[in-house]
Amino acid sequence: MKILVADDSMFSQKTTIKTLKSIYPGAVYETANDGFECIQVYAAFLPDLVFMDLLMPKMSGQEAIRQILERYPTAKIIVLSADIQLAVRAEVLSAGALAFINKPINAIKLKEIELLIEG
Amino acid sequence: MLTPTQEDILKELYNVFVGEAANLLSEILQKRIFLSVPEIKLLSLHELKSSEKENLIPVLNGTVLSTSLKFGNVFSGRADFIFPAEQIKYVTALCLGEEYIVEDTEFSFNDEDFDIVKEIGNIILNSIMGGMGSLMEMKLEYDVPQVILHNAGEFCKALVSSEESNLLLLYVSFGVDNSKVLGLILIKFSLESVEFLIQKVNEISRDLNE
Amino acid sequence: MNDLYVAIINQLDNGIILLDEQMNIQLWNKWLAKYTGKSEEEVKGLPITMVVPRFNKKVYAYMFEKALSDGQKSFCSAAMHRYFVDSHCADMKQPHQNILIQHLQVAHQSYLMIELYDVANHYKRIQNLNKSLQSSIDFSKSLEQFVYYDSLTGLPNRKFVLDRLEHLIKEEDKVFSLFFIDLNGFKAVNDQYGHLQGDLLLQMFAERCKQVVQKQEVVARLSGDEFLLLVENRTSIEAVEQYVAKINKLLQEPFIIEEQQITISASIGYACFPQDGVTAKQLLNVADDQMYVQKRAKKKGF
């Protein structure tokens, strides 16, 4: 399993990967520091799953989701954001994200969407 | 004063606190709030030259409205949420769902304006204090913030000449309906408190790298 | 509860609601009973959302929860939330209420206290205060207009110019020129057509001046047919000549009075600061004298 974590915060990248490892210990991880980099890494790495922050410099998560899904319609993207407004959640879900997790991430929140990921 | 790792961690933590406040605000206003990537800086006021102090935060050289609260006993300091005064009428109109009319250069504020600023400040500072309390694993005592109108430069003068020596600057701009409003969050810590905070951040960093 | 404390709460000039942890009303003070028409007996023990349906919204549930769990205090302004409890008075058309939600703990028992302030009258009072303030600002503006401007032409008056000159003289490294303008033959117009038509001509001339006056220039009416042009930062001979030409050009087109074309000329004297004088009085005298010299020369010429 290959997982890409896109977040402008190193701290958040590490926390996310650490939490993910408790569920997917065998997975291979890649990171991206902004939306633009995320698109490039996606093309090279072709991950099974993307965890995407929204508020990032250079290119927002929203735009990266749009561009990735345009090229890879079956991409599985899960949004991980501190911007937890209902309107934001609705916006990214209708853009094609699989799920929305409120930051900070923890194992309980991950478990809740695990079924969704596998399905 | 902060290492890149420390800055990154603090930024991300505050990001979550501010996000929570924005969510509450958006539910009250029934409007989408657009947040910017926050910027964070920790400054030691004693080490600043007087010229640096004057131009520390350009926004503060104008007329500003602040909502302020003092917090804590052991972990203590003061938190302010600051609005440039020229934005207040715009924010009020926004909150009241009225159309904003550009008035004369003279500002006249009324209780409605002050109450709105007090509520926004209350929401934002509550989220930050709440978040910081759980981060430090202690209950921080604090009250509803007070709103004060400061004439040009007054706020900055008071800021740099106080006992608390460390200043955590957090810039966030938020927009509603395509318009940008800049809000500034300032947290002043006592010397022990800032050491406490950094210690906590270092702990988080260590846990993560284990 | 102690009777005295209850008596105090019932004397307060704002609403107090006390909820237990299950959000049921435990106290509803007299102020609220009067305001809403619902007595404490009627509402005691009922869930707050049943009595005050507006508290059903998610944001308030969040604030209540935060108060109970973290001791957070929340302030909600009338400006953003309008109101919470309904008033039973028919004349209260627009209720405006602020509330403060906070946590209370007495002997291991947690409560939520909601303080409610009716600010409708207060807002109204401030609005009226602002209005009266505005009208007094308007009044002082009109007073200023009266003191510094000429009522016939709307141009700045003698006092305005003198104040401005004093000010400029005090400033460092300031230079300026002033032009004394006297309309030739204005008296004849007055005699022939009457004062009303004469005033009309002065107004028309003032209008032409206003059209061309630029930043750092002031055209003022001193008295009768005497006008003054003040130009900041320019004192060279070329500049002075340019301005004299500019003034003469303003008078080139005839004025139409009672369907008659009337052409009028001007005598212009000027003075420059600092070379021609260092006080406003000296400068005006120099310009005035020069103007007279020119006027006499023109008369001889005719």
From TrEMBL, chain A:
The modification 4-aspartylphosphate is found at D53. It comes from the Bacteria. This is Response regulatory domain-containing protein. Keywords: Phosphoprotein. Residues 2-118 form the Response regulatory domain. The keyword Cell inner membrane does not apply. Transmembrane segments: none annotated. One of its GO terms (biological process) is phosphorelay signal transduction system.
UniProtKB/TrEMBL annotation, chain B:
The keyword Chloroplast does not apply. Keywords: Chemotaxis. GO terms for biological process: chemotaxis. The keyword Iron does not apply. It comes from the Bacteria. CDD domains: CheC_ClassII (cd17910). Signal peptide: none annotated. InterPro entries: CheC-like_sf, FliN/MopA/SpaO. This is Chemotaxis protein CheC.
From TrEMBL, chain C:
One of its GO terms (biological process) is regulation of DNA-templated transcription. InterPro entries: DGC-Regulatory_Protein, GGDEF_dom, Nucleotide_cyclase, PAS, PAS-like_dom_sf, PAS_fold, Rev_trsase/Diguanyl_cyclase. SMART domains: GGDEF (SM00267), PAS (SM00091). Residues 174-302 form the GGDEF domain. Residues 1-71 form the PAS domain. NCBIfam families: GGDEF, sensory_box. This is Diguanylate cyclase. It comes from Lysinibacillus macroides.
